Amino acid sequence: MKSLLRLLALVLAPLAIALSARAAEKPSEIRVANPGVGVGNRPVVGGSAWSLLNLRGALESEFKSDGVPVRWSFLRGAGPAVNETYANGLTDYSLLGDLPSIIGRAGGLKTRILASGPKTNLYIAVPADSPIQSIKDLKGKRFAVFKGTCLQLSAARILEAHGLSERDVRAINMDNATTKAALATKDVDAAIGLTDLLAQRDQGLVRIIYSTKGDPRYTCNSTIIGSDDFIRKYPEVTKRVVRQYVLAAKWLADQEKDLTEAYRLWARSGTPFASFKEDWAGESAREKDSPLVDAYVIARYKTSIADAKRLGLIRATFDFEPWVDRSFLDQVLKEEKLEGFWKPRPAP
């Protein structure tokens, strides 16, 4: 009897190991973070291929048959809050703007860049009856900036391009919702923000004195990043996440001549259809939201790393290329026969 039990143990041991290894290939859940919330703190955002993953339930559908739930977290604290979730082991993948991701990397967060995110236009607004007409008029004024986000880096560049620095304005740290409220009550003289400022303008509350539209030097840039530890444990899951992102970007590019359906989906965020339509007018969806980590992205991030150091936002610079893992994106593009669909963008 004892011999039989030993024999069974020897036979079953490899099977148990195999089953254990297979279980390890499938996480208990996939945790996805988004840097920002919709109007009224709703857990929906718009304006990108990334947002379509959530709006169209792409990841949930992809992993449904595996029994793996996808949990989205929309964080009002934006990029800095996403960094905190990575630091605490609470996030597996996210979209993240250039500055917060750079601060995280410089601070020791183990992440990988998997694909490029969108180029995001920015707007500087003032109360509707303000005498301020240009960037130069901001000197000495109360200027709302969401610090630690890509808005801070872009604001510094825009000010410098007009002969000013952050020291020349009274920079006040405010999140997006607080910024809009402060503009409406005139508790700030100006603010830098996103597409939702266009809606405030249409309500007669603010005027737009500056936009980055048409000038990629000052837009917010972002990438799709993942936890290095999670990627090492679950490479096949990572590939499937990247695939769904690429397919979302492909869908958006295919709608380029008429983005009505995208605007309709994005409007669930609370930012009006008309604001997205104006923001995307005259721009190529294929170029604006390309997933390629190309010469444009490389140049922008190298500049951002240097600027973050120059502005005292990080202590030391680092090499960009070792941060990027193109392997999953390259595999997906090949398998989906999308090599060449997006043309590499040149450095600005």
Walk me through this protein's architecture.
This protein has 15 helices and 10 strands. It is α/β, with parallel strands linked by helices and 348 residues long. The protein has 2 domains: 29-118 and 221-335, D-Maltodextrin-Binding Protein, domain 2; 123-211, D-Maltodextrin-Binding Protein, domain 2, CATH 3.40.190. The chain has a 5-stranded mixed beta sheet, with helices on both faces. A 5-stranded mixed beta sheet has the order 7-6-8-5-9. Helix 6 (150-161) links the parallel strand 6 (142-145) and strand 7 (170-173). Helix 5 packs across helix 14 (295-310). The longest helix has 23 residues, at 2-24. It is globular and about 60 Å long. The termini are far apart. Residues 7-23 have low confidence and may be disordered. This is Nitrate ABC transporter substrate-binding protein. It comes from Sorangium cellulosum.
